[in-house]
């Protein structure tokens, strides 16, 4: 029997809600979002965070890939994502509202990670998720490799952060290596920053 590798495609505006549903299911118990988003109405808050990130950051200023049915999603910023800081500034009040009583934890977590984030241009894998029932089918690899191919074509490194130790070995399979292990304040999760040097051109 021939195994067909999953394919990724660029996301469109009509994919936002399906992508948000996938990311919310994938991040339902993720240590980072549990730490920085209030427990009260957590699912609603998480959904709106993901919606803003996919639509206002990824689609407007970065790159978003999905599998055909949005079973997997990856959201990236790139060296060309020059409008991201302005969007974050514009949305600050909304993020404060969504974080709720965890906003100060959010700020201190970001401050702890800031020194470990790259200053030079990178492809930043901001978020990636797969529907829980579809994990282990190569879907995450499809949407991650889509971004890595573009980073490699541009000769630019890739960067990510993860607060789940199980993900570290998964990302190593894509060529990422740990740069730092960062203890997040206020009892937050240990977070790994990972870096991948540009590699030779990938084939599809």
UniProtKB/TrEMBL annotation:
<feature type="domain" description="N-acetyltransferase">
    <location>
        <begin position="6"/>
        <end position="199"/>
    </location>
</feature>
<dbReference type="InterPro" id="IPR016181">
    <property type="entry name" value="Acyl_CoA_acyltransferase"/>
</dbReference>
<protein>
    <submittedName>
        <fullName>N-acetyltransferase</fullName>
    </submittedName>
</protein>
<keyword id="KW-0808">Transferase</keyword>
<dbReference type="GO" id="GO:0016747">
    <property type="term" value="F:acyltransferase activity, transferring groups other than amino-acyl groups"/>
</dbReference>
<dbReference type="Pfam" id="PF00583">
    <property type="entry name" value="Acetyltransf_1"/>
</dbReference>
<dbReference type="InterPro" id="IPR000182">
    <property type="entry name" value="GNAT_dom"/>
</dbReference>
<dbReference type="InterPro" id="IPR052523">
    <property type="entry name" value="Trichothecene_AcTrans"/>
</dbReference>
């Amino acid at each position: 029997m021939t195994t067909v590798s999953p394919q990724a495609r660029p996301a469109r505006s009509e994919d936002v809600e399906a992508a948000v549903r996938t990311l919310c299911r994938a991040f339902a118990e993720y240590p980072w979002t549990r730490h920085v988003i209030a427990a009260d109405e957590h699912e609603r808050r998480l959904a709106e965070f993901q919606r803003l990130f996919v639509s206002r950051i990824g689609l407007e200023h970065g790159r978003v890939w999905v599998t055909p049915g949005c079973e997997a999603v990856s959201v990236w910023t790139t060296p060309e994502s020059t409008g991201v800081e302005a969007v974050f500034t514009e949305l600050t009040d909304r993020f404060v509202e969504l974080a709720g009583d965890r906003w100060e934890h959010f700020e201190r977590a970001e401050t702890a990670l800031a020194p470990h984030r790259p200053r030079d241009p990178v492809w930043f894998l901001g978020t990636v998720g797969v529907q829980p029932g579809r994990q282990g089918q190569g879907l995450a690899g499809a949407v991650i490799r889509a971004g890595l191919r573009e980073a490699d074509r541009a000769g630019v490194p890739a960067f990510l952060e993860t607060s789940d130790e199980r993900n570290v070995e998964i990302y190593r399979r894509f060529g990422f290596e740990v740069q730092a292990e960062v203890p997040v304040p206020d009892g937050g999760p240990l977070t790994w920053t990972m870096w991948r040097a540009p590699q030779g051109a990938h084939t599809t």
